[in-house]
C-alpha cells in the first residue's frame, strides 16, 4: 500500500504579509492621490528592479560588508553577489549614474515599490514593505530641499490630513556644527549623541540630558548607556537643538547650516507655508548617515493609543533629506541630490484612523449563473457581450446549484447576477438581480420565505437590454 504523501503546512514567513483585494484597492486609492501631487510638481515616474548588485547598495544602509547582513542576497551565475533592494534611493543613484548622459539635469522622479530588510521582524516591523519616494538629482541649492518639504505638505493636504501634520526641518550641518562646538569628534560618540537627540519627543529634555551623559534607566530598570559627555558639552548640545542654555556656539559648518535653513524659511514664507504646516525644528535627526544637509520628516500630530494603552502622538510617516555623496559613488564629479520617502503601509494605517481611507470593497464582477449545463455556450455569449461593453463579468465555472452560485456571487461582491433558465430562454428574456439593492431590501423582511416570494431588486428584461440594464445597476450602486 502506497504511503500518503505528507502534506505541506501552509505558512507565511515571518515579517511578510498577504494583501487582500480590499487592502490593494485602498492602497491604490491613496497612491493615486499622492501621484497627482507629484505630477503637479513636475515629477515623472521611474521603476528600478528589485535586485541590484550588492556593491551598488554600498555600506550606507546595511552596517557591515557581509552580503546577508541587513539585505537578502544571492549569487548569480558569474558568482557576483546580488541583493534585494533595501530602499529605493540607492537604486535611483545607480540608475542616474548609468543614464547620466541622456537624463535631464536636474532629474526629478518618483518611485513606488517594495523594499526588503533582512532584520528581525516584530510588531509593525516587516521584512517586506512598500515605500513611495520622490527625488531631485542634480540641484545643489536649498530651493530643491524646500520644494521637497512643500510637496510633502501638499501631499498630506491632498490625503485629507490638513491640520493633523507638520513637516519638521533641520540641517545635518547644524547638528555637525553643534557637535564640533561641543568637542565631540569620535564617530561612535557622534552617533550616540544623535540617537539621544532623536529621543527628545519620547523622553523629553531631561531624558536626553541623561542619554548625553552617563546614561538613562527606564521604568523597568533597564539601563541605556549614554554618550559620556560632560555637563558643559551636554549644555552646548541641548542649546544647539533649541532646548535652553546659551546657543551662541559657533563653527563654519554650523553657520552654513543655519544659512541654508534661513534660505528655506524665506521660500516657505513666500509660498505661504506657515509653521502650522512646515517648521524649522533643530531637534530633527534622520537616522541614515548619508545625509549631508537639510533633513526633514512628516509627523502626524494626532493622538493614538500605543500597545500599553497610553495616548501618544502618531509620529512620523516619512522623511528624507539631502544626500550629496550617494550618486558620487558612481561618478568622479560631485552630484547633489535630495529626496524623501513615505512609508505606504504606515500612512495607510494613519488614514484609516482618521477616516480618510475608508474600507474599499474591490469591485466584483457581474456573475452569469449557469442554470442548464447543456447551455454553456449561451451563457458564454452573455458574458462575452458584457465584457465587450467594458463590464467586468464572469461565467460561473463551478458545479454547484443555484443557491451555492448565489452565495458565490455574494462572496465575489458581484453588483448583479444574470439568470437565464429554460423559461427565460423560451421567452427571450433574462432575469437580472441587483445584488446591492437586494441586500438593502432584505433588511426589511422578517423571514427568508417572504423575501424569496417578493424577489426584491429582481427584474425580467428583454435579452437585447442586457448591457443597458447592467450598466444602470452598476451606476446606481456606485452613486449609492
UniProtKB/TrEMBL annotation:
Top EC category: ligase
GO terms assigned for molecular function: ATP binding; histidine-tRNA ligase activity
Major location (coarse): cytoplasm
Catalytic activity: tRNA(His) + L-histidine + ATP = L-histidyl-tRNA(His) + AMP + diphosphate + H(+)
GO biological process: histidyl-tRNA aminoacylation
InterPro entries according to UniProt: aa-tRNA-synth_II (IPR006195), aa-tRNA-synth_II/BPL/LPL (IPR045864), Anticodon-bd (IPR004154), Anticodon-bd_dom_sf (IPR036621), His-tRNA-ligase (IPR015807), HisRS-like_core (IPR041715), HisRS/HisZ (IPR004516), HisRS_anticodon (IPR033656)
Record domain Aminoacyl-transfer RNA synthetases class-II family profile: where: 28-365
Its EC number(s): 6.1.1.21
PROSITE patterns documented for this protein: AA_TRNA_LIGASE_II
Aminoacyl-tRNA synthetase among keywords: yes
Location within or outside the cell: Cytoplasm
Keyword Aminoacyl-tRNA synthetase (UniProt): yes
Residues holding L-histidine: 87-89, 117, 131, 135, 286, 290-291
One Gene Ontology CC term in the entry: cytoplasm
Keywords assigned by UniProt, alphabetized: Aminoacyl-tRNA synthetase, ATP-binding, Cytoplasm, Ligase, Nucleotide-binding, Protein biosynthesis
Matches recorded under HAMAP family: His_tRNA_synth
Entry similarity comment: Belongs to the class-II aminoacyl-tRNA synthetase family.
Subunit structure of this chain's protein: Homodimer.
Protein name according to UniProt: Histidine--tRNA ligase
Lineage, highest ranks first: Bacteria, Pseudomonadati, Pseudomonadota, Alphaproteobacteria, Hyphomicrobiales
Amino acid at each position: 500500500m502506497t504511503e500518503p504523501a505528507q502534506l505541506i503546512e501552509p505558512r507565511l514567513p515571518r515579517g511578510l504579509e498577504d494583501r487582500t483585494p480590499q487592502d490593494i484597492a485602498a492602497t491604490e486609492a491613496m497612491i493615486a492621490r499622492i501621484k497627482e501631487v507629484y505630477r503637479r510638481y513636475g515629477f515623472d515616474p521611474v521603476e528600478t528592479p528589485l535586485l541590484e548588485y550588492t556593491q551598488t547598495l554600498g555600506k550606507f544602509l546595511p552596517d557591515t560588508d557581509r552580503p546577508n547582513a541587513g539585505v537578502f542576497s544571492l549569487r548569480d551565475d558569474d558568482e557576483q553577489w546580488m541583493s534585494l533592494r533595501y530602499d529605493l534611493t540607492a537604486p535611483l543613484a545607480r540608475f542616474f549614474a548609468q543614464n547620466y548622459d541622456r537624463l535631464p539635469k536636474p532629474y526629478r522622479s518618483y518611485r513606488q515599490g517594495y523594499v526588503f530588510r533582512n532584520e528581525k521582524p516584530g510588531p509593525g516591523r516587516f521584512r517586506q514593505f512598500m515605500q513611495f519616494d520622490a527625488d531631485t538629482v542634480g540641484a545643489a541649492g536649498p530651493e530643491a530641499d524646500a520644494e521637497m518639504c512643500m510637496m510633502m505638505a501638499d501631499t498630506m493636504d491632498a490625503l485629507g490630513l490638513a491640520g493633523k501634520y507638520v513637516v519638521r526641518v533641520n540641517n545635518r550641518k547644524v547638528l555637525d556644527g553643534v557637535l564640533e562646538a561641543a568637542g565631540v569628534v569620535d564617530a561612535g560618540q557622534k552617533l550616540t549623541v544623535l540617537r539621544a537627540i532623536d529621543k527628545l519627543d519620547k523622553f523629553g529634555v531631561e531624558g536626553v540630558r541623561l542619554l548625553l551623559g552617563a546614561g538613562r534607566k527606564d521604568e523597568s530598570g533597564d539601563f541605556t548607556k549614554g554618550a559620556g559627555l560632560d555637563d558643559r558639552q551636554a549644555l552646548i548640545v541641548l542649546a544647539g537643538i533649541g532646548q535652553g542654555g546659551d546657543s551662541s556656539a559657533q563653527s563654519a559648518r554650523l553657520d552654513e547650516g543655519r544659512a541654508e535653513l534661513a534660505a528655506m524659511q524665506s521660500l516657505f514664507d513666500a509660498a505661504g507655508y506657515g509653521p502650522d504646516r512646515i517648521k524649522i525644528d533643530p531637534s530633527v535627526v534622520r537616522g541614515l548617515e548619508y545625509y549631508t544637509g537639510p533633513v526633514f520628516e512628516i509627523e502626524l500630530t494626532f493622538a493614538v493609543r500605543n500597545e500599553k494603552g497610553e495616548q501618544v502622538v502618531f509620529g512620523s510617516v516619512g522623511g528624507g533629506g539631502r544626500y550629496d555623496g550617494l550618486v558620487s559613488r558612481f561618478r568622479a564629479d560631485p552630484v547633489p541630490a535630495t529626496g524623501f520617502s513615505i512609508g505606504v503601509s504606515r500612512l495607510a494605517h494613519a488614514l484609516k484612523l482618521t477616516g480618510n481611507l475608508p474600507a474599499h470593497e474591490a469591485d466584483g464582477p457581474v456573475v452569469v449563473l449557469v442554470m442548464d449545463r447543456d447551455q454553456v455556450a449561451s451563457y458564454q455569449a452573455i458574458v462575452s457581450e458584457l465584457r465587450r461593453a467594458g463590464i467586468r463579468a464572469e461565467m460561473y465555472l463551478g458545479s454547484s446549484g443555484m443557491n451555492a452560485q448565489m452565495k458565490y456571487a455574494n462572496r465575489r461582491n458581484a453588483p448583479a447576477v444574470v439568470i437565464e433558465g429554460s423559461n427565460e430562454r423560451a421567452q427571450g428574456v433574462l432575469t437580472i438581480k441587483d445584488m446591492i439593492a437586494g441586500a438593502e431590501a432584505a433588511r426589511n423582511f422578517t423571514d427568508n420565505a417572504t423575501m424569496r416570494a417578493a424577489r426584491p431588486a429582481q427584474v425580467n428584461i428583454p435579452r437585447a437590454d442586457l448591457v443597458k440594464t447592467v450598466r444602470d445597476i452598476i451606476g446606481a450602486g456606485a452613486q449609492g
